[in-house]
Amino acid sequence: MMRKQYGNHFLIFAFFALHLLPMFEVLLGSSSIYYIYTYNNIHKNLTIGDILLLLIILLGVLLENYADKQLAEFRCHRKKSREHKFSVLSTGLWKYSRHPNYLGEIIFWWGLFFLGYSHNAPLWCALGPLLITLMMYFGSIPMS
Question: pLDDT band at 120, cuts 50/70/90?
Answer without folding.
Answer: confident
